[in-house]
Amino acid sequence: MVQEVKRTKGRLLTFGFVRESEFRGERLVLDQKGCGHFLLHNVPIDLNVPGRHNAYNALAAAAVGRILGVPWEGIQRALAEFEAVSQRGEIVRKNGIAVIDDCYNASPGSVSAALDLLVDVPGARKIAVLGDMLELGTESGRLHAAVGEKAAECADIVLAAGRESAHLVAAARAAGMVQDAARHFEQLEQLGEFAAAQLHHGDVVLVKASRAMAFDRVVERIMQQLR
Fold this sequence. Notes:
Structural class: alpha/beta
Helix content: 40-55%
Number of strands: 10
Order of helices and strands: HEEEEHHEEHEHEHEHEH
CATH class of the largest domain: Alpha Beta
Number of helices: 8
Radius of gyration: 19 Å
CATH architecture of the largest domain: Alpha-Beta Complex
CATH topology of the largest domain: Protein-Tyrosine Phosphatase, Chain A
Shape: globular
CATH superfamily of the largest domain: Mur ligase, C-terminal domain
Distance between the termini: 48 Å
Strand order of the largest sheet: 5-6-10-7-8-9
């Protein structure tokens, strides 16, 4: 990235929550829904989408808006009114259980962000239900293992299905999770049934996989259990 920055001829803008950023957010806090609230150039920004990563997305959007001449009050209003797209970090609460439906698609970066969100959403127990990240080529095994290592840090229980996700579960166990806490399933239906049966009041469960893995069926099974 540094080399690409050096070669660019356009204007460079930086954003973030560090002092050096041109568009610098300050005092970021997350509410009970995992949504960010912070100051940007002394303007209060209140987001209606969960996740720390979306706070960074908001900073990027604000930077573009200001360059195009959008007033601060317009930026403030637009960010407050923006809502999560279905199956992209959508949090559904029912019967004392929070389900993070993020199964529209998955990449190493988006899974890492989703696991951070799992940590940030308050709950007694954190459950990560994960599937394959597709189209990763020869790096697939290593990247799934890296996700497994992070999942072991972020979740109390890791449940997975998919051929590549076997690397994920193996890495989670190698990172210290006991066998019963990190499980791999051959069939998606088995995973859905097991995940639904594990839920207790106060749990937070994340469901995340590439779209082709059809993990929306897992979400459906969980929601059936909560009726």
